[in-house]
Structures are given as C-alpha cells and as structure tokens.
Amino acid sequence: MKRIRIFHITSIIFLLHASIYAQHNIVINGVLDAKNKVISIQQEITFVNTSKDTMQEVFLHDWANSFVSKTTPLGERFSEDFLKRFYFAKDYERGATAIESIKNKSGQTLNFERYNETPDILRLNINKSLFPGDSTTFNIEYKVKVPSEKFTRYGYHKNGNFSLKYWYIVPAVYDTKWQVYSHKHLDDLYAPLSDYKISLTIPSTYEITSEFDQKESLNTNDQTKTIQLLGNNRNEVNLYLEKNSSFYDFRMNGVKLISNIEDNDLMPEMKSVATKRIIKFLKDRLGPYPFDKILVSENDYKNNPVYGLNQLPDILRPFPDGFQYEIKQLKSITESYLEKTLIINPRYDAWIKDAIHIYIMMTYTEQYYPDMKIIGNLSKIIGLRWFHAADLDFNDQYFLGYKNMARLFLDQPLTEPQDKLVKFNKNIANAYKAGIGFKYLEDYLEDDNILADAVREYYINNTLKITNSKEFEKILNKLTPKNIDWFFEDYIPTNEKLDFKIKSVKKRKDSLEVIIKNKRNNVMPVSLAGLRNGQLVSKTWVTDIVGKKKVKIANEDIDKLVIDYDQNIPEVNRRNNHRNIKGLLNKPIQFRFLQDVEDPTRSQIFYIPEFEFNVYDGLTIGSKFYNKTFIRRDFDYRITPSYGFLSKKLIGSAFFQYRDQIADYDLYQIKYAFSGSMFSYAPDLLFRRFSPSVDFYWRPQDLRSNERQRLSIRSVNVFRERDDNNPVETPDYSVFNVRYRYSDFNLLDFTSYVFDYQIAKNFSKLSTTINYRKVFLNNRQLNLRLFAGAFIYNDTEKDGDFFSFALDRPTDYLFDFSYLGRSEETGLVSQQIIIAEGGFKSQLDYPFANQWITTLNANTNIWKWIYAYGDAGFVKNKGISPKFVYDAGVRVSLVADYFELFFPVVSNNGFEINQPNYNEKIRFIITLSPQTLIGLFTREWY
C-alpha cells in the first residue's frame, strides 16, 4: 500500500509541474477553402530557447510541402518502395505550402530559406541573438494545398472529408543541435511540446473531431463557422473534418476515448467494456494519461496495424467476438498513449517506444487471453489443428515476424535510423524484436516485477518531457541485481543473431556435464532446462558463452535437456536446442501435408500435390517432398517425382541448396546448390539435366539499396534420348558456365548488365546483356536493352543452330527457361518468347548467328500500358556477310515482364499487318511461376 501511495503522489506532483510549463506557444488562424482544398493560415509562434546555447536562427518543419513534387525526399521514398501512386499522380492531387511572409513582432520581415534546398525544412534568421531562457515571436502567413489522402491516408478524401496531419508549420526540437529531417512517410515528426490556440473557419456543413477542447460559433453568413481549439503541452495537432462524423466516444477512468475504429458485429456495450479495460491496463502498467481525451483513428491503425491473420476478411474471421476489435484498439490506444506523452526522437531512438508498445501488447494478451492461438479458432478445426501453426500462441507472431528478417539476412540494429530501415523492418520486424527483447530480458531477470517497474518508473519520470532510451537504461540498471550490459551492448545496437546448441552431454554420478556452443559472435545469455517425463525439473541461466562453455547441472533423473524451454529467447534456429538423454532419435521424423511453421522438436518433411503442363508430357501430376517452412532456412530441398499423362512416363526434378551467410554486406552470402530434372523435350523423348553450382552474392551496406551483384559458376550436364527419325550429332553435352550479374532495380531507374562465358567440348562463347529503364518526370518511360555475343571458337555445324545465338527464340540448350513447348516451331506455344539473347519479336530469315550478333531493343510508352517497340541489329554467320535486321510494333504490357503481348507492324519481312496469318505473328510473354509473381507484391517490403 505504501508503494502504491508514493506512486500516486509522485504522479500528481509531476503532472502538476508539467501542466504549468510549456515550451512554446502557437496561435493559428486558418480558413479552409473546401472546394479548392486550400487552408489559408496566419500563424504566430512564440519560440522559447530552453537550451544552454545562444541562437541566431530557428529551424521549422514544413512537412505539408513534402508533397510539392515528385523529387522531394517523400516522393523519392515512395519510389524506393515501388509505390507508383505518388509519382503518377495528377498535379492537383499533390500538396504544397506557399509562404507569403514571415515577420517578427514589430512587423520586420525575416529572411528564411529552404534548408539545403530541402522543401520541407525552413531555416529562419531571427535577426537577433536569442539567449538561454529568452523567447522570440514571429508571424507566418501561408497557404497550404492539402494533398489527396491516397498517398498517406491523410489529406482530402473523395467524399469531401479531410484528415489533417502535418498540415501546419511547427518548430523543430533543439537538444544540443537542431533535430531536423524530412517527411518520408514514417510518421516520425519530432516536434516540441507547445501550447496551441487554433481558430479554424470551415464550411458549416463540416464537423471537427480532435483531442483538443473546442468551441463552435456560427458566422453571420451561415455558410461557415469558426471552431476554437485549445490544447496545452501538445506535440501535434491532428484534425478530422467530416460532413457526417464517423467517430464515437466513451468516457472511462477520467479519460474520454474518441475513435472511429469499427467492428460492426460488436455491441456498443462490448466496445465500451473492452476500451475501459485497455485504459485501466495502461494506467496500471504505465501511469495516468495527462490529458482528458485520447483520439485514435482508423487511419492511424491502418498505417500501423496488427499484421497477421487478424487482418483476414470478416467472413474468415478466426477470432472470438470482440477480440479483433480489442486488439486493434489496444494497438492504437497504446501507440497514441506513448506518442503524445513521451517526447523521444522517433527517427533515431524509436526502439524504446517500440519495445514498451509491443511489451504492453504481449503482457495484455497474456493476462486476458492466455489461451489465444495465432490462428484463433482455426486451431480447433480438424485438419488445421494438426499443423504446428495451430500450436502457436498469439504472441508467437512477434518472434516469427523478427525471425523472418533474420533468416533472410535482412535484420537491422534497433538503433538504425528509421529512414535507413527496409520497409518490413520499419513496419514490423524491428518493433517486434524490441518487444520480444523485453520478454527475453524479463525471463533472464527471473523476476517479472523488475522490468514492469522499470517501464512504469520510466514513463512516470519522463511524461511530457524530452527523453531518450539512455534514461530507461539507467532506471533498469538501478532496479536489477544482474548484469544487463549484454542487452544494451549486443542486443539493441547490433544485428547479431542468437543461436545456441547443445554440443555434448556426459553423465556423471550425480550430475550432467553439458557443453553449450554459441554459434554466433556475442555474449548474450541462454537458459538450460532439464525435463523429466515432459515436466520441468530445473532451469539454469548460462552467461558469457564465447565459443563453447561447460555447464554442470544436477542429474535428477533428467531424460531431456532443452535450451530456452520457455521460448522467450529470439533465436534464429531452435532446431538444435533439444537433446534426449535417453532414446535413439533426438527428433522424430514427421510427415506433414502442406507447408507449415517450423517445429523445432521434429524433423519435418512436407508433401503436396503438384500439377504442371507442357505440350510433350501433357498434364503432369506429382508430389513434391520438401523441407521449406514459411520462414526460410539455410538448407532446403525439394524432390518432385511426377507422371506425364501424355508421355506416359515418370519424370520429375530434385533440388538441394545451402546458404552460407558470411557477412552483412559486400560479399555477404555463398550459395551451394545441386539440381537435377527429367522431362520431355520433344514427343516421346526425354532429357536429363544435372547441374552443380556455387553462387557468390554482394550487396551494399545500405540494405534499402536494391544494388546487387552475383557471380555464378556452374556445370550444366544434359543427356537427351536419341530420335532415330531425326538424329542429332550431339545428344549429350556438358557446358561450364560463368556468369556475372549486376543489377540496381528501382521504380524509376533500372540498370543491369550480365557477362556470360560458356565453354564446352565443341564451342566457347562470350556475351553481354545491358538493360536500362528510365521513367522521366513527364511519366514517359524508356526501356533499352543491348545484347552482344560472339563465339571464341565454334565447331558445332553438325548440330545446326542448336548452340547458336538466337535472334528471337533461344533454343535454351541449358534448359534455363520455362518454355511451354521448347521444340515447337508452329502453333500457339511456338509464339511464346522470352526476352533473351537477340530479343526480337518478329521471326526473320536469319533467326540464328553462329559467329556473332549485336542487337538493340527499345520501347517507350504511348498510353499507360501500351508501348511502341523497335529492335535493330546485325547477325553474322560463317561465310555470310553481316545482315542488318530490324522490327517494330506495339507492346501491350498487362503485367510488365510477366504477361505481355507483342503485335509486329514492320520488319525485314515488310509491313506485317497486311500479311496473311497475322495472328501467328503475335508473340507473348507469360510467367506461370507463383514465386515470381509474388515478387511483384513483396518487393516494396524487402
């Protein structure tokens, strides 16, 4: 009781102190022109120098001007994330700020500039020295063109409503230096606390929803009304102007919740109960909220949702009534609770707020929904409940989200600036890593109260203050008797992964001697549990494991040892955490129908029916056996025996691959692989292909960059059945191939080049392919491709043009391409093309080159997805002078590089449209690989 009383007294004293102090004062008088989406603003800013330094200038954030052009940092960010909607938007859909004047209190015009020509940062010369404790007042007159909401979910809506965020000019934070940076759609404006007084004139048909106290007055013309908004100690002003308000409110525990997060199947009483419980939980776990209103919107939630299965459509909703609504409100309310009260630099120190946020959510779920599974009620359905995914708790999603990036070798330190994170890390993985890091730390401290008390004390001590993660570190160190340097030195600022292994176990008379191996370069601790008949007997924390460490534990008839029995440690590999003291098999083999989540206690083999088609084997039906789980593994394989109903033959393929991650950047990965396949290449003729390979991968230190390099070394060995009616001289052959590829794939600029060298018994050849794609500011797109290849020596005349360079349809003797019918010369499938080698679309009199070839392919858009293309080049065959070749036509790009049609117009053949059988001249590109198509949707995340 005494502890609780002291806690409440401390809270009241601090909140009283905070309420009488504000850093700055901002007065805004604005008029909304709803028709033209323009807000005319007269703004007065009183800026207080709370630092120890003397200032000559003041920096301001003008994030409304981030939308002014395609080339702003915001526009560039959209392009980096492959979001086309901003780049191809109409000019009237973008926003802008037009500053008319900035004057000091005496009416003197002040000079300002766009800092370093950055459109959304202002540097203002205040024409005097501003000493510590002094203040200065200046007035700004400007107009804000509100952008469309389709870019960030904030702006004007098609129905005439407005959601306003970052709509006014605000001072930057000064803490030994100016903290200024551009808007990059990260929701991370770092603004100081200010007292706001806003007067906004709007059409009388609108209502305003905000967290501020407000008063409404109708103007004399009855067409407009003026709303007065007052709020102290605020770091942002978000306004929602709607003709019919979508918001509802509940009063609870002294706080009024305003929300438009909906669940149409839930009664208002149930919503009220859920939100009251959330507010009470936050008050108990953090401390009292210092304001009387808290606003959460569907916009906020959609920008930072609870990713996962809880986003399924209502018809597939797997969770009990109310849970989905409650978890959405929990995510949004907790985020608002922290954002409005802890003034932390969100771009450079976001991890502490993320950690508290996810830790609170995990703790809430453990307390109120301890049995909730990650797939909800689906875990009870026969068939689905047999999957390991059905065994996972709801909170396991946070570990899986982080492990996904760690297994892809794309995880980044929690201290990495937010604008340097790949999108998946920014939106999901880094926050999850921070949250599960707190659970890891809580488990290590062996006292659930220590971390909870540290979080509460940190919040109370820093509410409505500029603070940082170092303050939390001090508090936690004060409360814990254990050494936690590893958490702040290894876990937080690095991307060092955790992977421990039980190396060996020796039985002694009354003890077990266990050697634990740390497979990574860190000193993070790990727990070792002893089990007897599935029950926990002992748990020991082992620290300072460098390489290997010997541990002795009491042998209390233990039959199994488990590293991280409670699964609170975010290891990237839990498959080596189990060791049976008795029995033969350490992990039993488990066959599973369909792909599943990785089960570290089983050796999983998955199987699934597989259907394919080609014109020689017809419909093929097989079963794929593989070990690939939903999250990538270092070693994976797939074996697919099949049966072709047309060829009536057993066919199939096998693939084995191991990835060796050797660094974070530069030469970062080596991949070893072996593949084999057997299919028909012509009627009643099989080919067998075997290929061992090794690939070296390079990438830059900046993981947001799409720049990649790859060196592939492989041997392709092909064995073809002989056709007595059409014999070939070289049915079997081996080709040694070295290929180097550089690529930098972006929405607006795409550059790649490939150097390829091949040597076989009867030939040696060298080629290069250069691709360049550019989207200009006027939305015109230009695509260029250059191919050049030459034989160093060629003794394959007896094989015809099988090994020659192709002008329009490669023979694909390496069997790299997915032809529907690789040997077809007539019919629909013969019209399939793959843009390789010559890249022509028309079939000309010189389709091959057995000496050298050079071609240039170009196309540019005419209208949206319709392009004009043209190809030109030279083909050189032995004993024949070089032949100039060309073609041109129309390209219809329904899905670029995946599903396209080519309509030839003119070529060496003449005006092709007027020629007979034109439909046979139309060519097409089609990609049937699901994995390739999925890449279209995942590229913005990784």
Automatic annotation (TrEMBL):
InterPro entries, per database record: Peptidase_M4/M1_CTD_sf
Record protein name field: Peptidase M1 membrane alanine aminopeptidase domain-containing protein
Organism of provenance: Aquimarina amphilecti
